[in-house]
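hiii, so i know i said id send this last week but things got crazy w the move. better late than never?? heres the sequnce for the chain we talked about at the cafe, plus the structure i predicted for it. fair warning i was half asleep when i ran it
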Amino acid sequence: MSLDKENLAAIVVNPRRIRDFARAKNRLAKTDKIDAEIIALFAKEIKPEQRQFKDEALQKLEALVIRRDQIVNMIKAENNRLSGCHKSVKNDIIKTVRTLEKHLRKIEKDIHDILKKDDGIKHKAELLSSVPGIGDVMTSVLISLMP
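okay and structure toks below
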């Protein structure tokens, strides 16, 4: 059972903050029971911000955005290798770049489809796209990676 499947919010806190909080409360001992009490007291008094989990469409968009970035970096790396490579491997590098570009086009189509078809994302995408200079790539990055 996971929190998102149970529709429960989560709070992510740097453990150091909780440890500093415990020190401020003069609770220096460290046992599971004491840790649980300090965490509960921290949540009650500090009230850290809850995070809602991303829905399936946002998770998919984020994965595609990250993968797109990885492929773009691989294409750059292969093109850099091409400039100083021996002629015996030149065709192999060119084929690799073409394959990567094919994958890139597929991922960009999938990103575009999510931006245009998913009801939860479509409105945000239209709003961002209305800003001059903001296209699908920047829109998808902002929607998927920004809180």
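btw Residues 49 and 125 are 25 Å apart (CA to CA). thought thatd interest u
miss u guys!!
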